[in-house]
Amino acid sequence: MTSTVQTPDYTTDSFFGLEDKWLSTADGELTHYHELGEGTPILFLHGSGTGVTAAANWWLNLPELSQYGRCIAIDSIGYGQSVVADGTEYGIREWVRHAVRVLDALGIEKTWIVGNSLGGWLAFQFAIDFPERLLGVVSMGTGGAKLTSALKGHSNPTLSEEGVRRTLEQFVVDKSLVTDTLVSLRYQSALNDTATDRLAEVVAARDRDRTELPLDFDVLATLEIPVLLIHGVQDVVIPVSRTWELLNIIPNADAHIFSQCGHWSQVERADEFNEVIGLYLGRQLADAH
């Protein structure tokens, strides 16, 4: 695919330890991503907190999980450093289609998806819209749930370092994980390009689809792919009941629940998270072969 879009002069902060890659995924669209490992594709889809990026969501996980497959973590359109074409619309189906464009541009026919929050919601919408492209799903704190008080605050983010700090502190039980460095990096990411206007657009699109495009449970009840659901008991953004709800609908779903853990299980319980996911993916990939 050819594109006239110039690659931005940008380098992911060394704090995250990830190299930058860029991929033309549509006319006027340039996707920013990170890639580690070889073998079975595993697409990582981030959540939707203020200043979120693929790096800021997965930096503690990609190096470990890359031993199980080809890990590809993208900045979804409207987030991070991915460049979007004029007139780009946002929403659950648009984010899913963007993920499909990434796969197409990389020549990937089928993939696993590991998704956090919004990314988990996208993973299941992907399973509904493009089941033939999916090998399996790992979803943490799956998005799309009804509004909680924390989610209402999530829908009206304050674009300041203090606002970013408040958002991140909602994600964890252990507030010490929300360091000044992490807050600063997330804030700088939120200021990218026209972040104030863009942030409002993506938040509005996400919350619109919460009511206009909820996950179709009738279709999810027919899924034949393996699914692992992960949740923190103390998740105040997406209550753990969301996982219980999905667990009772999806035929081949398993679940792992972390105690003393909030919405950010891949960060707050990173070592155990990597171990759980690694064992699960390792077993599933071995069975597939």
β-sheet strand percentage: 15-25%
Q: What does the main sheet amount to?
A: 8 strands, mixed
| Low-confidence spans | none
Q: Which secondary-structure class do the elements indicate? A: alpha/beta
Description:
This protein is an alpha/beta fold and 289 residues long. It has a single domain (18-287), classed as Rossmann fold (3-Layer(aba) Sandwich). Helix content is 40%, strand content 17%. It has helices spanning 54-58, 62-65, 92-106, 118-129, 149-154, 161-171, 180-190, 195-212, 217-220, 241-247, 265-268, 270-288; strands at residues 21-26, 29-36, 41-45, 70-74, 111-116, 134-140, 227-232, 253-258. The chain is globular and about 45 Å long. The two termini are 32 Å apart. Pfam families: Abhydrolase_1 (PF00561). It comes from Rhodococcoides kyotonense. This is 2-hydroxymuconate-semialdehyde hydrolase. Keywords: Hydrolase.
